[in-house]
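Revision sheet: structure tokens.
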Amino acid sequence: MGRTELKAAGRELVVASRLADGTVERRLHGEVIELTKLSLAEDVRPTGLDDRIETLRDLAPDAGAGGEHVERALDHVETARETVQ
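Predicted:
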């Protein structure tokens, strides 16, 4: 499973959250927590990663200056998703 990819995605979201404000910042922090849980889990279901991908796609346009980092995080999660069956 792509634990390294999920950790990298989390790091990107931490940077993005520093560049965002209000609700978006809190949602990004929530995604960092969810990605951390997934990176530590014994068994990751594809639906868990699909949910993260969907949420990050929704957050990217609202992230302002952090949008680029959200896009990078999305790439990492999609790469991790490819390894999970």
